[in-house]
Structures are given as C-alpha cells and as structure tokens.
Design goal:
The complex is a heterodimer. By secondary structure, chain A is mainly β. Helices cover 0% and strands 51% of the residues of chain A.
Chain lengths: 113, 118
Amino acid sequence: AQTVTQSQPEMSVQEAETVTLSCTYDTSENNYYLFWYKQPPSRQMILVIRQEAYKQQNATENRFSVNFQKAAKSFSLKISDSQLGDTAMYFCAITGTASKLTFGTGTRLQVTL
Amino acid sequence: GAGVSQSPRYKVAKRGQDVALRCDPISGHVSLFWYQQALGQGPEFLTYFQNEAQLDKSGLPSDRFFAERPEGSVSTLKIQRTQQEDSAVYLCASSQTTGRSSYNSPLHFGNGTRLTVT
C-alpha cells in the first residue's frame, strides 16, 4: 500500500515571493513515481511536475521545482516568483507498479497581492 | 475533442435513485481511470480500464458501483441506489499508454461530475 501525507491544509504567499509545499509518502516499492498536481476551481487536475524515484536529480519545470529526499521519503514543491494564477489546490501523488495514483489530502495555496 | 470530457457537470439525485456518469477520453487513449473526490479530500482511485478490459476495480466502494467501457473509448460509471455518502466529485482521466509507461504519457483529467445526493 502507498500513502501520501500533506500536513499543510492552507498556505499563503505574496505575489513574486517563493513558497514551499510539503509532502511525505510511504511505499514498499523500489520503483515509483511522484507527482504534483494543481486543481483550480474548474476541478480539472493539471500536472505540475513529476519525478522518477530512481533519479537523484531534482526535477524542475520553469518556476516549479522539487526537493526529493528519497531516504526521508519527502517530496516538497517549491514555487518561485508566485503568480496570482498559481492560486489553487495542490496535490502530491505517487504511483508504483500499478497504474493508479494515490493522492494526498491537498494544500490550498492562496497567492495575494 | 481536445481534452477529456465528462457529463453531466452537475448531478443532483434523490437518495435511492440510480445515476450514470459519462466520460469521453481523448481519442486513441488506451488507459482510462475513474476517481472519487470527496469534499476537502484528494481523489481516490475507483477503477482502471485498458481499452475495454477492466483491469482493476479494487477501489469501487460497494457493489452499487459499476463501470464499463464496452468499445474501449467512452466509459460510464453507474451508481445504483445512491446514498448520501456517494456525494462527491467523480473525475475521469485517460492516458495514451499503459502501466508504468504512463509516467511518460501523463494522465489527462476531465473537469469531473459533481454528484449531490439529497
């Protein structure tokens, strides 16, 4: 079984500032993949960034980057130069040999002026 | 269409009614998933299809839930004798490939159907 824990129900950041969202996970599998998804009010889940567990290098996608600590089973998301459009729910997720994703409970991010 | 389409967008059902939720995946996508998202929670896996074959239905919460994808494209999630605890957003997602290779062909989600059981 796989579990994902997001301990920050809500976060707030000012526009242009940097914010880090936390995620820890547990899995018995050696090969797995980690994801961050964004869910705006439209409800559509949008992939933000992904990381292969066997790659030590942290993934980056423009303003989004991760800090993947495999031994600690930690996978945090850093958003740089926050924009108003980043306001949304953010979900951390994991998948292993099965195709299905296991999601955390989410962090609501509010970007303010 | 360009994305995953789900209908209806909103559904209100009286307790005990049957409902059917539709998902039109992206054309040519092999894999199709259904997730249930309760208010304030993350999505939870319900079932997975590879073409028309239902390979995993371990997440279906009871035998009142039934999903099908008879021709390997459109899928329907049916809930019989709805209960209040069935109130949630039901998300459908599709991807081009199967298994772990879905990492390289990420899931595309629809906008979901919000089901409210009164």
